[in-house]
Amino acid sequence: MTFEHISSYGAGTPSISNIRVVTSPEAMASYRVEGRTLPVGSIVIKEEYADPTCSTIIGWTVMRKEPAGYDASHGDWHWQRVRASDRQVLEDGRVTRCISCHDTPACTSRDWQCTQM
């Protein structure tokens, strides 16, 4: 699967690291549109870097859109956090730390995407 770069932002709010966001092709069309729900199977990856040039990756946070009913109160998203150095999955499923940051009107109105462009 090929992922497309959709946005980038530096350290600070909403993250402590430098970020690049990439999406699966099926997510691309809906990602930037407020009020659109991303299709089931969509994948959004937040690549986290230690440096502003985005050359030293430290981890990934992944969102995958699940079928209706997986976690309806949180947009039916499955979350996963992965450390880059050893590919260790740190958190998986309904990840409270991810949900708590994305549970704001600005994000939930975009199908839980905290889009910064």
Short description:
With 117 residues, the chain is of the alpha+beta class. It has helices at 25-31, 96-102, 105-108, and strands at 4-9, 18-23, 43-49, 57-65, 77-83, 89-93. It has one domain (4-107): 3-Layer(bba) Sandwich (Chalcone isomerase).
Structural commentary:
The chain is an alpha+beta fold and 117 residues long. The chain has one domain: 3-Layer(bba) Sandwich (Chalcone isomerase), CATH 3.50.70.20. It has helices spanning 25-31, 96-102, 105-108, and strands at residues 4-9, 18-23, 43-49, 57-65, 77-83, 89-93. A 6-stranded antiparallel β-sheet has the order 1-2-3-4-5-6. Strand 3 (43-49) and strand 4 form a beta hairpin. The mean pLDDT is 86.
Largest sheet: 6 strands, antiparallel
Inertia-based shape: globular
Order of helices and strands: EEHEEEEHH
Count the E strands.
6
Strand order of the largest sheet: 1-2-3-4-5-6
CATH superfamily: Cytochrome P460
Given as residue ranges, the uncertain stretches (5+ residues, pLDDT < 50) are: none
Helicity, as a percent range: 10-25%
CATH topology heading? Chalcone isomerase
Structural class: alpha+beta
Q: What's the CATH architecture?
A: 3-Layer(bba) Sandwich
Secondary structure blueprint with pairings:
Elements: E1 4-9, E2 18-23, H1 25-31, E3 43-49, E4 57-65, E5 77-83, E6 89-93, H2 96-102, H3 105-108
